Every structure is written in C-alpha cells, then in structure tokens.
Amino acid sequence: MHAYRSHTCADLTSAQVGETVRLSGWVHRIRDHGGVLFIDLRDHYGITQVLCDPDSPVFSEVEKVRSEWCIRIDGNVKAREPDLVNPKIPTGEVEVFIRDMEVLGAAEELPLIVFGDQEYPEETRLRYRFLDLRREVMQRNMTLRSDVIASMRRRMWDIGFREHQTPIITASSPEGARDFLVPSRLHPGKFYALPQAPQQFKQLLMVSGFDKYFQIAPCFRDEDPRADRSPTDFYQLDVEMSFVEQDDIFATMQPVIEGVFEEFGGGHTVDKLWPKIKYADAMKWYGTDKPDLRNPIKMQDVSEHFRGSGFAIFAKILEQDGTEIRAIPAQTGGSRKFCDRMNAFAQKEGLPGMGYIFWREGDDGLEAAGPLAKNIGPERTEAIRQQLGLGKGDAAFFLGGKPESFERVAGLARNVIGDELGLSEKNRFAFAWVVDFPMYEKDDETGTVDFSHNPFSMPQGGAEALDGDPLDVLGYQYDLACNGYEILSGAIRNHQLEIMFKAFGLAGYGEDEVRKRFGGMVNAFRFGAPPHGGCALGIDRCVMLLADEENIREVMLFPMNQRAEDLMMGAPSEPTNEQLRELRLRVLPPEE
User: Fold this and answer.
1) For the whole model, what pTM was predicted?
2) Residues 6+ apart with CB under 8 A from 401
3) pLDDT tens digits, residue range 205-230?
4) By the 8 A CB rule, do 151 and 260 touch?
C-alpha cells in the first residue's frame, strides 16, 4: 500500500465497502458521540467521515488529535445506516473505522478556524494565508482560477495562436502607472524595471513576423490598491495580431471570453450581443466608461427643460459654458421616502444633493410632485416625463454642472437606484465594447496635455488628426466592460514612425526622448512594421466575476494587503548593508 494513501478523501463510495483503505488529510471537524469519535478528514479533493471507538487499537491516540492536525489513517470502509447517509458529499454513503493512525503534522492553537464561515480581519487572513487557503471557499476559488486559465489557453491555441514568453526584467516605460525598479549590480546607478505589461515586446513580435501571439502574462504596477485591483502584480491574457483592424480583434476575442464565461458562469446567462458604445456616450448615459448593462437605466440630457426655468440653481448653472442638467430615470422609484434617501446618498458622496420629481395620481389625473416640480411648473415637468418615458409611480433624479463634476456620483447613483428598485438583472453577464476613447487629456492644474490611454495607439484619422486640438483626437482604443468592471483593454497600434513622433510630441515628448525611451521599437519600425493591434484581458477580474466575489484578493493565492505589504513573508523588507554596498546604493531615511 502507498505510504500515505490508497484513495483521496473524495474517492470512497459504497463500492469500497469491506475494503481496507489508507487516507491522509487534515482534521476538519471532530465530534464526540458518547465515546465514539467522528472525524471529518479533509484533503484537497473532499471529505470522508472516519470514526473510532474504544475497540480501536489507536483510540487513545485518536483522542489527542485536534483541528487541522495532518494525519494518516488506515481503516475498514463501512456502509452508513440509511438514515445517516449524507447526500451533500460524494463519500456520504460510507465511513471508515480507524484501525491505525499516524500523526504527520500536529497543529498549534489556530489563529483562524478553517471549518465554517467565520469572518476574520483581512490582516489575520493574509498573515496566515496558508490556513485561509485551506477553507472550502478559497480552495474552490483557486481551483476555478486554475481551470479558467487552462480554458483560456486551450481556446487561444484552438484558434491558431501560439504562446510566447516575454522578459520580466526590462526597461522603464510610461504606461500610466509607476514602475517597480530593480537596481543593476553590473551597471551601478542604472535600473531595470518590472514590466507593467508586455506591450513593447508583443509589438516587436509582430514586427518579427509572428502573426498571432498570446501569453498568460504577469504584470507589475506600483498602484494604490482597490477592491478590483492589486497594488503590485496581476495576470492578464495578453494578445497581439498582425494585419488586423479593430473589429477583427472583437471578432477574435468575443468567442473566447464568451466561452469561458459560459463554461464557468455557474448558470448565469451570458449575453450574445455585445454593443459598441462610444466613450462619450458611455459617460453621458451611464456616468462611467465601464457600464453595468444589467441595469437598464440610461441617463439623459434634460438641460433645455431647465434653461430659463423657475428653478434658479439649475437655470444659473446653464448660463455657464460646458454645463448641462442630466436626468436619471427611476421606474417604480416614485415615493418621497426613496427620493429623500437618494438625495442623502448624493450628499454623502460630496455633492449638494440631487433634485427629484416623482409622479403620482392626483385629483385631476397624473401629478408631478417634489420641490423641482413646483419650481418649474406642469408644462416642463410633463415634457421631462415624456422625454424619459415615465409614468405613475416613477421618479427622476437630476444633477447639474460641468459633467466631470458630477458624472462619477451620477454613475454610482444609477447603480444604487437599479439595485434598490430591483431593476438590475443579477444572474447575467452583460458585455459592452467601449470605443472611441480620447487620445489625450488635459491636467486641470498645470494645463499640460498627456496621453489618456495607451500611448502606442493609432489616432483615428492618422497624422492629419494630430494637426488640430489634441483633446479632439480619438484613438483606435477600446475596453470591454462586464457588469460594471473593465475586464479588457486594447488598441490598434501606431506602427508608423512619423505619426508616432507626432503623437508623442503633442504629449510633450520630443523625438530625441522618444528614441531614447523606446529605442527598440523606434529602430524596429524602420524596417517594415505591419499594421497590428491587440488587447489584454484581466484574468484576476474575470475570475472575481465568475466566483461572484467583490474583492480581487479572494481569487489571488498570495495577495498583498491594502498597504502593499506581504504580512506572511515580511515584504517589503530592509536590505542588508552588504546588499546595498554591492549595488552601490544608499537608503535615505523616511521623511518626517
């Protein structure tokens, strides 16, 4: 017999009754029923109930075991009594009577309990991640992650892509986040960088004649953490193709992503129609460039109904350039209590509030109610109702000013309204391509222009588009949104040097600096670069959605905490003086 097991803890069925077996695993739960000890023995695959009574030659030893001890047992498989069968587990028809036991690893008092659904502080869970990962939900999430990645790989190979590995140690590159720098021992005073993405290398692969590339790629960015973003590293399905246009990328990636979500979506429906929404429309209709289309609410511009109206606040706002009044229609939200709650929500998010109108049955038919309705009169309120397609029992909420000042809160309010009124479909994955991103953005404080998205994107209209106002230039850039998260980002690349120099020039990068920073790519583009484009799909976010988790750390094996610390391994750590001398570095004390 094998030294540790003849079966896993998920293998045994009634077919093995009467056999002698060997199992190894962790003590999941212990129950003492009148001198008979029942132990749920757990391994990666499942749970088997084992038992021991005073007739067992190792009863006194079994009495000593505690939760999460790692043990090996030998025993006889018995059929459970019919009324004691557990249909919830594959081994529920049988149990094993212990004849011999070996303690493989005793456990001290546990800082967190593996059995059950107790909540523990994230700091505790990450410090003892090896225990946290033993929990059923975490085992399930990590198995899901592994299976999703394997499915992505198979699907990419099946459609003619090959996987290639790009370097992990490379040069620093402006990709929208801070680099992690690595000091060079052989070249004192110089630094490598961990790649924020394989961006330049995958483009160089296209110049090298590799027509279709993909990679399950680790990426490193020194970013502030969020619930849907790791502060240090993440993985993406990285893709690049030659001789393609934007729609070719969409047509290639949709079946892959759709198939993965159908395979692992747990019965959720997966939308087949993925609309293309312009960035400007996404911000106007949804207040975000990653809209959740499970929510049917679409905001509308209702400025004309308030211009010159009796509601002085909105009327004065509209006298300023670049302002508008936007409405959030809320079917079935027509109660003063709900409207007041949403007004309080806006105030909590930092705005003065949200105006509202709701419609109810009045003495003479349908009646508009609320402070706004009284100020602007029945004709304007009726015109608003008609535009928004609302009726009795419905409401509308209003925000005004320059869109950038209220769009974020408007988008959040739209989500809250959809959830609270039950308008959003929860058992569904809804996708949308967001296209026509602006190439550039202006810093409000400094007035400088910089890239707003990937700097290597082709501007729509080519070189001529760069002759006017940079803020009017759109790029062949696109994101894929799913249920309110951006899960994919990509672009058709700028493969022509003269356009590339011109595009970087508008963002303040002179030709000499571009040659210095991106020398490899500039040099390659001199020798016949093909039109090419690609994208990157965020694996962590996809698994988070498929696992129905709200925090990305729930689907990562060993994530950092909110302060980018690895409490389990003690990272980041202070270097030794010997290491610093070897690298010719000196560490400055932190600022007070």
Assistant:
1) 0.93
2) 317, 323
3) 999 999 999 999 999 999 887 777 88
4) yes
Question: CA torsion sign, 173 to 174 to 176 to 180?
Answer: positive
Q: What are phi and psi of 38, to 5 degrees?
A: -110, 130
Report d(CA 330, CA 341) in Å as an integer.
13
Sign of the CA dihedral with 335 first, then 336, 337, and 340 last? positive
Please give the single-letter amino acid code of residue 240.
Answer: E
Going by the DSSP 8-state scheme, the letter that residue 465 receives in this structure is G
* Residues 37, 63 contacting (CB under 8 angstroms): yes
**What's the token pair of residue 531?**
């039109």
Q: Up-side HSE of residue 29: CA atoms within 13 Å toward CB?
A: 10
pLDDT class for 494, splitting at 50, 70, 90?
very high
**Rounded Cα–Cα distance for residues 327 and 413 (Å):** 11
Name 277's Cβ contacts closer than 8 Å, sequence gap at least 6: 285, 291, 432, 433, 434, 435
Q: Which amino acid is at 568?
A: M
**Given this model, what pLDDT does residue 228 score?**
78
Alpha carbons 561 and 571: distance in angstroms, whole number: 11
Q: Token pair of 312, please?
A: 């002085």
Strands 233-242 and 477-482: unpaired
Other CB atoms within a 10 A radius of the CB of residue 505 amount to 15
Which position has the token pair 């309080």?
A: 344
| Amino acid, single-letter form, for residue 159 | I
- Vertex 440, ends 203 and 405: CA angle to 5°? 135
Residues in the chain: 592
In this structure, what token pair is assigned to residue 125?
A: 């869970």
Helices (H), 354-433: 371-388, 403-420
Both tokens of 203, joined, read 């483009």
Q: Which residue has the tokens 């230039």?
A: 473
